Amino acid sequence: MHSPTGLQKDVTTIQIWFTPNKLEADFGFDPADNLPVIQYVGEHTLGHANISAPQRAKELWPTYLDDVCIALSPEPKDPR
To answer: 70-75: long-range contacts at Cβ-Cβ below 8 A with a sequence spacing of 24 or more?
Structure first.
């Protein structure tokens, strides 16, 4: 089934967002509600990085958290 946006219903959307201050430890959604889980992944040049992902993201992309953290890491500077 397709949504009006043309995305398939089973597509998993993972959002990365930045906040000026670190979120409270209890910020997020209740997993029992089957809503996105918010995970804090550290400070970045754009602010404090957070990942919002559906419960089933781990099932569809088991390494998504590690992969996103690697992608957020700054590129090594060229020593030249």
So the answer is: 72/16, 72/41, 72/42, 72/44, 74/45
